[in-house]
Amino acid sequence: MLNCSPCTALKPAICPKLPSRPSLAPAPLRNPLCTMALKKSSLYSSLWSSCDELRGGMDASQYKDYVLVLLFLKYISDKYANVPYAPIEVPKGSSFKDMVALKGTKDIGDDINKKIIAPIAQANRLSDMPDFNDSTKLGSGKEKVDRLTNLIAIFENKSLDFSKNRADGDDILGDAYEYLMRHFATESGKSKGQFYTPAEVSRIIAQIIGIKTAKTTGSTTVYDPTCGSGSLLLKVSDEAQTPVTLYGQEKDAATSGLARMNTILHNMPTALIEQGNTLSNPRFVDGSSLKTFDYVVANPPFSDKRWSTGLDPASDPHARFTLGIPPAKQGDYAYLLHIIRSLKSTGQGACILPHGVLFRGNAEAEIRKNLLRKGYIKGIIGLPANLFYGTGIPACIVVIDKKEANRRQAIFMIDASSGYMKDGPKNRLRARDIHKIVDTFNQQLEVPKYSRLVTIEEIEKNDFNLNLPRYIDSQTPEDIQNIDGHLKGGIPVEDTTSLEPYWKVCPGLQKALFKKNRTGFVDLRVEPAEIKTTIYQHPEFTQFITQMNQHFDTWRQKAAKTLKALDAGHHPKQLIAKLADGLLEHYQASPLIDPYAVYQHLMDYWETTMQDDCYSIAADGWKAEPQRLVEQTKAGKTKDRGWACDLVPKSLVVARYFAKQQAEIDSLAAMLEAASAAIAEMEEEHGGEEGLFAALEKISLASVKARMKEIVAEGDTLSREEFELLEKYCALVQGETTLRRDLATKTDELDQLALEHYAKLTPAEIKTLVVDDKWLATLAAAVQGEMDRISQSLTSRVKELAERYREPLPQLTLRCQQLEAQVNTHLERMGFSWQ
């Protein structure tokens, strides 16, 4: 754990306050950490690890309330305290600064409740705030005081200054809140994770309901009847061209409080969040009718068995169940019907529901038939299993569009169940999966084994069953074994034609690999061991690789110009959206290579490295300033771990400006490795019981020299061979020591040269190092990896086919007969008879 006040709570990885290592000449390290913008990834992980440390035995679903409330209080104190006519009121004496003053006091929990929470809650219509004086959760006496004191300290870090938080969705706070929510949902387990809709699913819904391309105004309304923590509402709001009006209702009191805070944290303080049961007591009404909205989105509880509590569906005053009454123990369609009733005649919406709603019978089948005949359902998107925190079952998105209902003759279906990655105990949609779903749905693209526009007529022939496998065969086709090929030999032509995409790019390559056997069959023209070489060295394939490299270079030049034009104050989220979409579009028409795979490489690199770099540039401009690395030992002492620069790593400076020195170091390292290997080989060869080192109690330089002195003293000529061996061993060890010392000296010298060079870097040089040598070079390597996979895939398939049909049945039979004869001969020689 690091200890560098005032950054203790977030355990910073770097600190400039310690002197340089003794082996280096002192060099000033500028821009102290405590005034430098903290990396987003470091902030998130540090917040989570610090909070998790303090949690103790409390359930995450309860502890989240305390952490998120403190984050909320810190935000509104920074942004709205002492601001006239602010949308959020921070009463005097109730700011985060006032809470800090309570640290370590005996009655800290009670004082937080009365002096901080109560005034803020009353002034801003917040209810069901957590009890900071609850001894059952926070402990009693000193334990409670220490826990709350440490919890407050987490949010004192100077990097957590939200006074300049932007309203364009590019704020560090909103993302930190989402990060904590995701982790709390993961930790809360199956029964308590429903307060959070995975951000990836929320983004899909936000981008397919049409709000992004619509002409929105402040009067445009978005409603979520089961809003949870509000994340889905906010994702839809982010997609709108202008600020819109948000409405949400949540049954759980504590979660509705989270939603209210979440909207404030995301600069949507005017959002209307109500608490109550949406089905039995809808809070948004116009007189005796439900209020209607332009957009409605929801992630209701799956298969709610108590949906009708407090409600008589047959006499519903809001006429929501005219298309049918859902089963008493399956409330999925109750929420969907509520959504449809809450939409304006031109409204659009989407609802996340379990797959069962697509095919279950009886009352649900009747509702499904009526919905289809009304034309309300625009599309269905099947999602992978185990995405959601409250359940592991697969779900789907049902897309509603009233505007086109009367003219609807078909429904667009997507089976995206196989596009995901494992993320701990859950599955998660990757950036490529999200983009592919959105592109396919919005453009109504029919993709084999993925998407189809299915007519209502076809659905009616299937008794209005919407189960996706009835309409989209997403299964990987079975690899057929050709019996004729196994009997008579030869590779079936139909197997080679399955590689048609490769032959379109390299038509001559097919002839280079295969020759005619008989009708419908071919033979491998080259030896199996030569398949890879034949592919890689074929002129058409090398030309294809060259063209693909040039294709990437075209994009790289354009991207480099954009990236080098960045300056302080730019918006990283807008940057990556434009950059990634441009890369995806650039590869759309490229043969063989999957454009979404290339897109994912950029998004992965953005997540791990480039995002932090861009936020650093947005905060401080193009500054490359090394920071000292320190760590605190268990004994309380500090240990110097050298220095580092996140934006421009030392390796980049060395590669561009000190390549000669690095080459010398690499040479020394290789020599050292060879010397160490020679010593190890010698010790292994002569270290056995009868080896020349056997007389030594321990093989070491000291023991070897001692033995050499004994041999000299004894004057034993018979030990000459042993002496020479020991002498050779000493020379090797001494040479290794010299090499190790020289390597350390050269390394320290290079380290110092690189450190001193940072102060000489111009902004243009920094841009070259970061954009060309770091970002685009990394992405180029990733794209090259995709090209390697293309060639490897072709090589593997050709080898597989060649091996499969290498020996036809007659050859195998003959071979078995020959082996049987050999066995019989051996048995007869041994005196056995095989009958």
UniProtKB/TrEMBL annotation:
Keywords for this protein: Methyltransferase, Restriction system, S-adenosyl-L-methionine, Transferase
Keyword set includes Transport: no
InterPro entries: D12N6_MeTrfase_N (IPR022749), DNA_Adenine_Mtase (IPR051537), DNA_methylase_A-5 (IPR003356), DNA_methylase_N6_adenine_CS (IPR002052), Restrct_endonuc_T1M (IPR004546), SAM-dependent_MTases_sf (IPR029063), T1MK-like_N_sf (IPR038333)
GO molecular function list: DNA binding; N-methyltransferase activity; site-specific DNA-methyltransferase (adenine-specific) activity
EC number annotated for this UniProt entry: 2.1.1.72
Pfam families xrefs: HsdM_N, N6_Mtase
Residues annotated as domain N6 adenine-specific DNA methyltransferase N-terminal: 45-155
Protein's UniProt keywords contain RNA-binding: no
Catalytic activity as recorded in UniProt: a 2'-deoxyadenosine in DNA + S-adenosyl-L-methionine = an N(6)-methyl-2'-deoxyadenosine in DNA + S-adenosyl-L-homocysteine + H(+)
Protein name as catalogued: site-specific DNA-methyltransferase (adenine-specific)
